[in-house]
Amino acid sequence: MKRRRYLGALETLALVVVDLAATALAYVIAYHLRFETDIIPFLHLPSISVQYGTIGVVDVCFVVAFAMNRLYSHRRSLSPSDEFFRVVAGVSVGTLFAMATISFVLRGIFEFSRLMVAYAWFLSIILVSVGRAVVTLTQASLRKRGVGVRRLLIVGSGSPAHIVLDKIHRSPQLGYEVVGCMDDGSARGMGSDVPLLGELEDLPLVVERFHVEEVIVALSNPRPDTILDVADSLADLDVSIKVFPDVIQMITEDAGVDDLDGLPLVAVRQVALRGKNIVIKRATDVLVSLVVLVFGSPILLLIALLVKIDSRGHVFYVQERVGKDGKPFPCIKFRSMVEDAEGETGPVWARREDARRTRIGTLLRQLSLDEFPQFVNVLLGQMSVVGPRPERPVFVQQFSNHIPRYMERHAEKAGITGWAQVNGLRGNTSVEERTKYDLYYVENWSLLLDFKIMLKTIAIMFTDKQAY
User: Fold this and answer.
1) How many domains does the chain contain in total?
2) Considering the domain boundaries, does residue 113 fall inside one?
3) 288, part of any domain
4) Does residue 267 sit within a domain?
5) Are 83 and 129 spatial neighbours (Cβ–Cβ below 8 Å)?
6) Which residues contact 104 (CB under 8 A, 6 or more apart)?
7) Which one of 16, 42, 43, 346 counts the least CB within 10 Å of its CB?
């Protein structure tokens, strides 16, 4: 445990040093842009010594603001897009804090240019994000080599536990060593490489015996008090406890707090995309689609040419999919398989190492470039850039018969990318889990969430192992 605290302190120190250096560099560059170029004239040139004093004040204010925004909390699984938005918030608060401090507390001692502050704000976001990305990549590399690895115990042995285990196996950069799991009475085992270490009542003994540093609770059909029992049993031990969201679905899914003239109510279903939000989302869809189709047209033409040269058949593949309100629409893609690929098999999902793929189609599917013609569907109003991925009618019929609330994902337009896909649930993965993510998106939509999903989609295009 001492070693864990020591490594945690080093990680925090590395982030603080990177943030201080990035912020200082941003203000130095901003000073030169403002006062040593002829872009915009200025009346007064602050002295270098005053500016360096200002940078010192700004650095202190930024570190305080970052700490307040929990930018120094240790979160191994934070996505690049989440980190970027946290940096934007931290830099914005830090900038306001620094301006207030210099204007009211240190007035007459230090000074700043408003245009220089605008430059520095933008540059700080870029440089801090780049610096933190370097720290993250370094941490991931060290964890793959066994440095800073945390011993993890999974409480559960059913389907939720398997989902957690699969995610850990596919993300070695997180630095987890799974020592085993606790049996929750499920019929399924966890495999030969992950042993069952006992029943739930043995949890404290197992944690101590195997020096467990983190526990993830992923139970199948838990009783309402089970999670509290787990937390109580480990209260005296130095171990982190996390809960897989599926476990607390029974008390949090779609729930929100409402008010009836002072009487608190729990809203079990709220629809986010109504009124002006529909207009905002549609405007965003049109703008993003036009930008992609106009500026990406040379790449799209090149892909079309390669598809035509590579194999016999049409350039585009049009397939019926189910969209908003369960209505079918023609979904357009670049053809990535041989012509009439389902002539003998009928409707089937694509498989890893699928023999039906063409040579160029294999690359297109791995990079998701075959999906780009769907921006035409977006312009026509049949799809959205972000939303639940559309399925074929035959699969929709199958899933709706045995997956609760499956058809509710069609309350909004289907999307080119979605919340489930950027969380690793694409291709031949659990439809039940994918549906839960889709429903979360439908009922918790925001423009910020859409932008976050778009950024995460770009980030995983070249690394997504589920794209085949």
Assistant:
1) 3
2) yes
3) yes
4) no
5) yes
6) none
7) 43
Same domain, 19 and 100: yes
Contacts of 437 (CB under 8 A, 6+ apart): 418, 419, 420, 423, 425
Residue 466 maps to a domain: no
Residue ending a domain, choose from 237, 252, 267:
252
Q: Identify the DSSP state of 236.
A: T
352 sits in which H/E element? none
What is residue 261's predicted lDDT score, i.e. its pLDDT? Answer: 46
- Going through 26-161 in order, the beta strands assigned E by DSSP cover 150-155
Within this chain, do residues 235 and 107 fall inside the same structural domain, yes or no?
no
Write down which residue in 93, 121, 144 finishes a domain: 144
d(CA 339, CA 310): 12
What confidence tens digit (pLDDT) does each residue in 269-297 have? 555 667 778 888 999 999 999 999 999 99
Q: How far is CA 31 from the centre of its chain?
A: 35
In the prediction, which pLDDT does 199 show?
Answer: 85
What CA–CA distance (Å, rounded) separates 298 from 62?
Answer: 43
pLDDT at 129: 92
Same domain, 445 and 351: yes
248/291 Cα distance (integer angstroms): 40
| CA nearest to 166, candidates 146, 148, 185, 193 | 193
Task: Identify the burial level of 189 via C-beta atoms within 10 angstroms of its C-beta, where 0-12 means exposed, 13-18 middle and 19 or more buried.
Answer: middle
Task: Return the structure tokens found at 337.
Answer: 């398989």
Among 156, 149, 170, 162, smallest CA distance to 191 is for 162
Q: What is the CATH number of the domain that holds 230?
A: 3.40.50.720
How many CA atoms lie within 13 Å of 200's alpha carbon, on the beta-carbon side?
Answer: 22
Instruction: Name residue, tokens 């240790």.
Output: 74
Query: Distance between CA atoms of 382 and 237, rounded to whole angstroms?
Result: 54
Tokens of residue 38, six digits: 């002829």
Q: Tell whether 322 and 427 lie within a shared domain.
A: yes
Domain that holds residue 90: 2-144
The identity of residue 307, as a single letter, is: V
- The amino acid sitting at 378 is V
Rounded distance, CA 434 to CA 142, Å? 32
For residues 109 and 21, membership in a common domain is answered with: yes
154 & 140 share domain: no
pLDDT at 234 over 50: yes
